[in-house]
TrEMBL record:
Source organism superkingdom: Bacteria
More about this protein: During catalysis, the active site Cys acts as a nucleophile attacking the alpha-carbonyl group of tRNA-bound glutamate with the formation of a thioester intermediate between enzyme and glutamate, and the concomitant release of tRNA(Glu). The thioester intermediate is finally reduced by direct hydride transfer from NADPH, to form the product GSA.
Species this chain originates from: Isoptericola chiayiensis
Positions of the catalytic residues: 52
Reactions this protein catalyses: (S)-4-amino-5-oxopentanoate + tRNA(Glu) + NADP(+) = L-glutamyl-tRNA(Glu) + NADPH + H(+)
Residues that bind substrate: 51-54, 117, 122-124, 128
Domain Glutamyl-tRNA reductase N-terminal: start-end pairs: 11-164
InterPro entries referenced in this protein's UniProt entry, alphabetically: 4pyrrol_synth_GluRdtase, 4pyrrol_synth_GluRdtase_N, GluRdtase_CS, GluRdtase_N_sf, NAD(P)-bd_dom_sf, Shikm_DH/Glu-tRNA_Rdtase
Descriptive protein name: Glutamyl-tRNA reductase
Length: 464
């Protein structure tokens, strides 16, 4: 039986889950895409988006029209995610919101445009969506359909940023965290900051701190990438050893931790177990740093508080750090609670842009059947043109025969041109009708393929 390409997205985000559940679910996210494509034959491509507040898996499935393979593939993916994340298959299955067909594009475009973020309109997510596609390319798990989907998502994000007020508000988790920290810190031009991590949020943090006048910025990474990051961002690198980190913390007013390094690498944890007991910033290191800061202050008034922003989903910072005297810890839950509202009209404008882009994408994606139908119309029209031209030529030849003449080349060209003009003048409306009917048929066929996929996630069954 012939196959059809179906898009499926499995989404777990701060909107569907609490952050603790999301952290457990996304622990094994780095390897899931490659594992799915390598072990589930109908899955032609997979792209994973894993950020501080979402874990999403986009699948390109080549499935028979009965839909059984799609349902099996979806269940199989849930089991693989469960195995990589150390949770039960039932927990993983129940955690996902499943989208299929046209809903996939609409959702991804909204995500890339910042409309599904904790801070509506955040711009970092656009870069994370781009990097997800790059990773899929590197792992050889993308597909033509997913390439088109993610590239269109990036273009849509740019359109939202350009045509709505969301593009100029500077909204982001980093900005929100720095605004909260700024309420209790010394003025930013006098503050000293340490960034933990060297990824996208680290770069955004440097830019945001500089925009607020903070010049004393240091970067720490236990992976050893701090020196390279520092050179490219004109900041100071901290040694990768614990002692260097403690020294930097002792002099800092603000820590922005966004490495997401906890729980990465190594084998998957046992079901129900924590991803890793090792935090990037643990209680001992922070307590030692505060003791050093107090010793250095001597008889002077009590040293300023150390504000720590933990922007990593996998909790760079041990939550018990909040109990250390003189430390204020703001994590993703705090930021989520303090995320500002966005003007309704601005969001609706952005959503219209996203909806239009999703509609155009679906017409392009499903348009192959429609294009074939249109080509068939043109073929029929050409056959009609040929038949009418032959009849007209025969009549003209009969009229000229008594005169001992034959139709000239100009006569033949005019006959063909007139016949083609008559045929094509009636073709436009037929093209519109046939294209709409073909698109509707393609959508109906796809709906038949994916029917029951979400229901199958909720039912326990053996996974091959």
């Amino acid at each position: 039986m012939g196959g059809t390409v179906v898009l499926i997205s499995l989404t777990a985000s701060h909107r569907e889950l609490d952050l603790d559940a999301l952290e457990r679910l996304s622990t094994g996210s780095e390897s899931v895409g490659r594992t799915v494509v390598g072990s589930c034959r109908p899955v032609q491509g997979a792209v994973v988006i894993s950020t501080c507040n979402r874990f999403e898996l986009y699948l390109d499935v080549d499935a028979p029209l009965d839909g059984d393979v799609v349902r099996h593939a979806t269940r199989h993916v849930a089991a693989l995610v469960a195995e990589a994340s150390g949770v039960s298959t039932e927990t993983a299955a129940a955690s996902f919101a499943v989208r299929t067909g046209s809903d996939v594009a609409a959702h991804l475009f909204a995500v890339a445009s910042g409309l599904d973020s904790m801070v509506v309109g955040e711009r970092e997510i656009a870069g994370q969506v781009k990097r997800s596609l790059v990773v899929a390319r590197d792992q050889d798990t993308t597909s033509k359909t997913l390439e088109l989907l993610f590239q269109t998502a990036s273009r849509t994000s740019k359109q939202v940023g350009h045509h709505t007020a969301l593009g100029g508000t500077g909204r982001s988790l980093v900005a929100l965290g720095l605004d909260l920290a700024g309420a209790v810190l010394r003025p930013y031009p006098a503050a000293r900051a340490v960034i933990v991590g060297t990824g996208a949020y680290a770069g955004a943090s440097v830019a945001a701190l500089r925009a607020r006048g903070c010049a004393d910025v240091r970067v720490y990474s236990r992976s050893g990438r701090a020196a390279e990051f520092a050179a490219s961002h004109d900041v100071v690198a901290v040694g990768a050893d614990t002692e260097s980190l403690v020294s930097a913390l002792a002099e800092a007013d603000l820590v922005v931790s966004c490495s997401g390094a906890r729980g990465r690498g190594g084998a998957a944890p046992a079901p129900g177990a924590e991803a890793s007991l090792e935090y990037v910033l643990d209680v001992a290191a922070v307590a030692r740093a505060r003791e050093r800061a107090a010793d250095r202050a001597g008889d002077e008034p009590e040293s300023d508080a150390l504000v720590i922003l933990d922007l990593a989903l996998h909790r760079d910072v041990d939550p018990q750090v909040a109990d250390v005297e003189g430390v204020l810890l703001y994590d993703l839950s705090t930021l989520k609670a303090n995320a500002p509202a966005t003007e309704h009209a601005v969001v609706e404008h952005a959503r219209r842009i996203v909806a239009d882009a999703a509609t155009r994408f679906e017409e392009t994606r499903l348009g192959r059947a429609a294009d074939a139908a249109v080509v068939a119309l043109f073929d029929d029209a050409e056959r009609t043109v040929a038949a009418e031209a032959a009849d007209a030529t025969a009549r003209l030849a009969a009229e000229l025969a008594p005169l001992g003449a034959e139709p000239s080349e100009d006569d033949l060209e005019k006959i063909a041109r007139d016949a083609r003009r008559r045929a094509h003048s009636a073709l436009h409306h037929r093209i519109v009708e046939v294209r709409a009917a073909a698109l509707a048929e393609a959508r109906a066929a796809e709906a038949a393929v994916v029917a029951g996929a979400e229901r199958s996630l909720r039912v326990t069954e053996p996974v091959d």
